[in-house]
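Predict structure. Chain length: 489.
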Amino acid sequence: MKRKKNSFRKKLLSWFMFFTVVIFTVLWLLQTVFLQKFYNGMIIRNTVKVADKISSESQSSDITSYIDDISRSNSILVFVTDTDGNILYSSDEYKKGHKFKDERLERPYNGNGKEMRFHYRELPENYTEFLSAVNASDNGEAELKNDDIYVYGRLIDFYGSDEKAVLYVGTTLNAVGSTARIIRIQLIWVTLLSIIIAFVLALFMSKSFSKPVSQLNEKAHKLGEKDNDAEFSEGFCTELDELNKTLDTTSEKLKKNREFQNELLANVSHDLRTPLTMIKGYAEMIRDISREDEKQCAEDVAVIVEETDRLTALVNEILEYSELQMSDSEAVMNDVDLSETVASVADSFDKLYSKDGYVFERNITDDIHIKGNISRLQRAIYNLLDNAVRHAGEDKWIGITLRTDNDKAIIEISDHGSGIAPEELEHIWDRYYTKRQRSGKGVSGLGLAIVKQIVSQHNGICKAESEVGAGSVFSIKLSINKWAPLKTT
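Prediction complete.
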């Protein structure tokens, strides 16, 4: 298969690789360039929250244990001093258990009777600056920040102290620097390996996705062809499987349409040629021979008119059958009084042929309703009666019956004609089938095919029974409309 510049496979591969590059670019920015900023922002917010928690618990008798726990779990340095900078308590992530310094209490002793000494961590170098900032603040809060450390604090009420105490909470900001360098080296290897893996996966995925699409494209190019052997592997995804089935259905319809066109040309050309030849021949006879013989001229013109009517009827039947074959010409279905419809068509034939000695014997059950298209049902009944008239026996008797059998309505059109041979009976519903041994002019071979198509649209069944020399019975079986209106009296 020829490779295309903008093929689906190349597009999918390029977009997948682009997606991989974007993902790793964002990852690099987040893990290296913006990592320090994210870390600092998180640490600053956490430090302020720690100060808030200590302030809320500052009057508790267990405040020192609370400070030890919170400083150790958050890796921060905490000092509590008076406003002059004297240490009341301190804690960090490494030490805990400092004793509360309260000048009002006696000097504590340990169990051996020796005096306990207090060892406090020295105040940081920036404490003086911080204390000045707190004292100068209107709300008693202050913060110090540079590239390495962040300090936040405020004035609080501290347990054991009668005056305001100063809370100092400090943390390191630049601790992520070495970690970022390690992450950067690791990301280099992860990126290289991931790009290689992503490229391999992209090749595999693009091939997997493009293969069924290419197969469907090839199948679409061969729609309707005789040798449509394009391969398609089902199971990749439901949508493509459904598209493949749609293409198969479309291909079958196109093949049938092509067969229908070929059959139309083959069969209709003969039927059209005969009346056209006769029209031309009799027209030439009028021109060359009988134009001065009034009687002969009238007879020739009558033949031309008859053949023209036959030609018109043939063309109309072809157009009607073609319309019924169209999938987009679905009939609108409504409630149909089948009894009235059958009686109406029978009345038309009675008025038209009774003067010629035809007898139409009716046995029509009243108030039978079905769901259907009244104009097409009239056409089907018309075709059956027309067929019966053309092939009626010497008695010119036509039987018209409408009855019910359980939930079915059955229409039967009978005649006493010559009948149909058993080997031809199964073919009479085929279009353009005119080889049965029956008399009649204007036979196109489409009348019964139109009946079958209309009945199929109504989900009904066509049937014919015949005996040579004893006549025929054509029947249509349709479902009765359960929701038909009740007859009122």
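Summary: The mean pLDDT is 76.
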